[in-house]
Amino acid sequence: MALLDSVQAGLAALGPLDVRDKAAAELALKYAKGIDEPSDWGDRQRDPLAELGPKLLQVLAALQMTPAARKAAVKPDEPAEKPRSPLDELQRRRSERQAT
Q1: pLDDT grade for 9, boundaries at 50, 70 and 90
Q2: Cβ neighbours of residue 33 under 8 Å, at least 6 residues apart?
Q3: Predicted structure pTM score
Q4: Residue ranges of the alpha helices (H) in 1-99?
Q5: 3-state secondary structure of 55
Q6: Are 3 and 32 in contact (CB under 8 A)?
Q7: What pLDDT, in 10s, does the model give residues 44-60?
Q8: Which domain holds residue 65?
Q9: SS3 of residue 83 by DSSP
Q10: What is the count of structural domains for the chain?
Q11: What's the burial of 86, exposed, middle or buried (CB within 10 Å: 0-12/13-18/19+)?
């Protein structure tokens, strides 16, 4: 499977993209195509994978198409855990003692 095919499959799995994300998706496709088809490069001394690989990875991370990006993303339906203060901890312990 070509890298371009993998990127296209990943984008399809995301479902309909927000209008604001379409440019990043197109850029990812362009980078993947450039890596797959290095014959488009006039200078044979340049390595398309070395030049475009990191750029493609950055775009994929921005689209949350990498494992690390998905793990780091906070989903809106998941409430962020509120930091607990020492007073909160004391109140929790007190309510536990009163419950027993």
Answers
A1: very high
A2: 4
A3: 0.59
A4: 3-14, 22-36, 48-62, 67-72, 86-99
A5: helix
A6: yes
A7: 677 777 888 899 889 98
A8: 3-99
A9: coil
A10: 1
A11: exposed
CA distance 37 to 22: 22
d(CA 9, CA 13): 6
Amino acid, res. 23: A
Q: How many CB atoms lie within 10 A of CB 61?
A: 15
CA 31/CA 61 separation, integer angstroms: 14
Q: b/e for 1-29, b at 16 or more Cβ within 10 A? A: eebbeebeebbeeeeeeeeeeeebbebbb
CB 94 within 8 A of CB 62: no
**Token pair belonging to 82:** 């509120």
